[in-house]
TrEMBL record:
PANTHER family linked: ARSENITE METHYLTRANSFERASE (PTHR43675:SF8)
This enzyme's EC code(s): 2.1.1.137
Catalytic activity: arsenic triglutathione + 3 [thioredoxin]-dithiol + 3 S-adenosyl-L-methionine = trimethylarsine + 3 [thioredoxin]-disulfide + 3 glutathione + 3 S-adenosyl-L-homocysteine + 3 H(+); arsenic triglutathione + [thioredoxin]-dithiol + S-adenosyl-L-methionine + 2 H2O = methylarsonous acid + [thioredoxin]-disulfide + 3 glutathione + S-adenosyl-L-homocysteine + H(+); arsenic triglutathione + 2 [thioredoxin]-dithiol + 2 S-adenosyl-L-methionine + H2O = dimethylarsinous acid + 2 [thioredoxin]-disulfide + 3 glutathione + 2 S-adenosyl-L-homocysteine + 2 H(+)
Name of the protein: Arsenite methyltransferase
């Protein structure tokens, strides 16, 4: 049976999300990781949960990552390669992981937190790899991927390579480890959903892989067979795996049957190292400009604010300021560099871009303040987002001594009403 691209992606999503939620046998995961080039020292340096036994290589070991570089991992899973890369780029660099699964992103963020790594220097963002990547063009020095491209439909592979070329800086490099077909796969294999989820049936041939890279604009393309035993995934009696990930069937996906006994994976596919470079031109060769954050939207690096926060009118806030007790409320300005026109008098300044990382300190400061009122320019983005993070944390901690509010209309509305009142509005 031929499966649509939608069915293929749903099956992959469901299987890998289940892996993130349920975890894996540590012995099995370490066996797979060791077989594909991770050292014992590397595995000890990261949380156990970061290694899910999903690799077909070790791209960090061959990527020659330098301090200060911006590195992107496509299909970052539990975070193993991003966390290893983070130790190389240091505080002046950035290590970003993209994954389609919210469960994988949540797992990777927990693993990063265990090592005191925080966004945006180390961040994980949920994103579909078959769609435009949420990154600034010409911002990344090195793109990694580990046994992921084979999981994309053919058209999705081409889309991803073009997006990889867009976000790489001129002269930037692509370092993938992937499963590639030794010969055109039989229909029995390509139509086997279990084999697809297991990183086998979606593999394309060497010539097809090179063509997709070349059409995307890459040069100096090199693919090297690692000659690793692909059957390592099924060697563990406790793993229950087929290929790099055990298949599951979601509510919209067809039942996935095991293909373990149908064919020898080594006869059809191999693990390859893939190298390619985005060419430079005369103009790009002299350009050194780089954004401070490679993400198009800085807030993508952080969890969604789960709490719905009510608004409060400017009139009520003004009344609190004139007639209320200072212990009754606090006004929080989450703007960072758009202070034109001043600010609400007495505001506490907590910029949104760093707010989530400083949330524990913020809670300690304001958790006994009954009304904590947030605002930004128009209170449609940063203000509600920070208020939601604060309210969500209060709920997680079971604290009812404080609650978040959002100033309706933000500072723009406030200035329109009270811009001429020095007791209510301060000039910057």
């Amino acid at each position: 049976m031929v499966h649509s691209d939608r069915v293929l992606l749903e099956a992959v999503h469901d299987a890998y999300s289940a892996k993130a939620r349920e975890g894996v046998d540590v012995k099995y995961a370490n066996t797979v990781a060791s077989a594909f080039g991770y050292t014992a020292e590397e595995l000890r340096s990261i949380p156990l949960e970061a290694n899910l036994g999903l690799s077909c290589g070790n791209p960090v070991a061959s990527a020659t990552i330098k301090q200060g570089e911006y590195v992107l991992d496509l299909g970052s899973g539990g975070g193993i390669d991003v966390l290893l890369a983070a130790s190389k780029v240091g505080r002046t660099g950035q290590a970003i992981g993209l994954d389609m699964s919210a469960d994988m992103i949540a797992l990777a963020r927990r693993n990063a937190a265990k090592q005191n790594l925080t966004p945006p220097q180390v961040c994980f963002v949920q994103a579909a790899l078959t769609e435009p990547l949420p990154l600034v063009s010409d911002s990344i020095d090195c793109i990694m991927s580990n046994c992921v491209v084979n999981l994309l439909p053919t058209l999705g592979k081409a889309v991803l390579m073009k997006e990889a070329a867009r976000v790489l800086r001129p002269g930037g490099r692509l370092v993938f480890h992937d499963i590639i077909a030794k010969q055109p796969l039989s229909l029995e294999i390509t139509n086997d959903l279990a084999a697809y989820v297991g990183c086998i049936a979606g593999a394309i041939t060497l010539d097809q892989y090179k063509a997709i890279l070349s059409q995307a604009g890459f040069r100096d393309i090199l693919l090297v067979d690692t000659e690793t035993d692909i059957n390592v995934y099924s060697l563990s009696e406790t793993s229950g795996s087929e290929g790099c990930c055990p298949p599951t069937s979601g509510c919209c996906a067809p039942p996935v049957q095991s293909s373990k006994s149908k064919f020898n994976a080594n006869a059809w596919v191999a693990s390859y190292q893939v190298y390619a470079v985005k060419p430079e031109d005369e103009e790009s060769a002299v350009s050194t400009d780089r954004p401070s954050n490679a993400l198009q939207r800085w807030w993508d690096a952080f969890p969604l604010a789960q709490a719905n926060v009510p608004e409060i009118s400017a009139e009520k806030v003004a009344n609190l300021m004139m007639n209320g007790s200072p212990e009754e409320f606090a006004v929080i300005d989450v703007r960072r560099d758009d202070y034109q026109g001043g600010h609400v008098n007495g505001s506490h300044h907590w910029p949104a871009q760093t707010f989530y990382n400083e949330l524990p300190k913020f809670v300690d400061t304001f958790d006994r303040t009954p009304k904590v009122i947030f605002y930004c320019g128009s209170s449609t983005g940063r203000g509600p987002r920070c208020a939601g993070w604060y309210q969500g944390r209060l709920q997680e901690m079971g604290l009812k001594t404080s609650s978040a509010l959002v100033l309706r209309g933000g500072f723009k509305a406030w200035r329109a009403m009270y811009g001429g009142r020095s007791d209510l509005t301060a000039a910057d």
